[in-house]
Amino acid sequence: MLERRVILRAERLRQSTQLSLVGGVPLAMETRLLVLLGSACHGESQYPEGDRFDLTQTGPQNLPFGHGVHLCLGAQLARTEGPVALEALLDRCGALERGPSPMTWQRTLVVRGPVTLPVVSRPD
User: Fold this and answer.
1) CA dist 110 to 23, 25, 60, 98, 100, Å?
2) Nearest residue to 39 via CA among 20, 58, 23
3) Are 38 and 110 in contact (CB under 8 A)?
4) Across residues 50-56, what is the average pLDDT?
5) In contact, 82 and 62? CB cutoff 8 Å
6) CA angle 57-63-64, nearest 5°?
7) With the CA atoms of 5, 11, 13 and 19 taken in that order, what torsion angle do they form, in degrees rounded to the nearest 10?
8) What is the DSSP secondary structure assignment for residue 21, as one 8-state letter?
9) CA atoms of 39 and 16, how far apart (whole Å)
10) What is the pLDDT of residues 57-104, one digit of tens each?
11) How much is the pTM?
12) 99 vs 66, 117, 118, 123, CA distance in Å?
């Protein structure tokens, strides 16, 4: 059996500097933490249907793009291109439906998202 090793970049690792409470869980000082960006925007208290893809979803700032001085430089471009790309795709392909094959997901700690997303085009 092959051993799978996960290489974690240093910016994903954190260590608490004081006694803290995170999501109701007490963390002792110097507790090591791993930041999982794939879980961003899925907290049920802020996003009741966080596992559902919804372009009109409201809620706090989109966490995967960062915040403040750490805001992704391409965030505004991505927000602009996303709807344009989806509209162009739907104009060209008509309605899209889930394909017969199952969707497959990334199986890593750090990245969350589909590897394959089978769809079938149906004329309007």
Assistant:
1) 20, 22, 22, 26, 28
2) 23
3) yes
4) 72
5) no
6) 100
7) 180
8) E
9) 19
10) 776 666 667 777 777 888 889 889 988 998 898 888 888 888 999 988
11) 0.44
12) 33, 8, 5, 15
